[in-house]
Amino acid sequence: MNIRWNHDVVTLETMREAEVWADSIANEIYGRIYEGYTTSDYKVAYALAFMLASIRQFHVHTEIENTSVYKVWITMSDIQCSEANISIKTNGNNKGTHFE
Q1: Phi, psi of 82 (to 5 degrees)
Q2: Which parts of the chain register pLDDT below 50?
């Protein structure tokens, strides 16, 4: 799958600012402008992952590269799920954390 990415280097001071910022990114992902987002701010990645996980047909994936680049992307579900899915992956090693 070829993922269209949005890259950002913004660093926000508070979690509330990150939630507002992530909300605008989630709208763009929902609108299919792109499927993935990279940031250096863990707060934005955290907020975005949980916002996207609330959408039933999205499977949310996260990854940390080089301890400073946070990646969040989605894949689409073929079936309607009763709950959102989120998987967490760190430095290419699956930590076995999967929330359903």
Answers
A1: -85, -20
A2: 80-83, 94-100
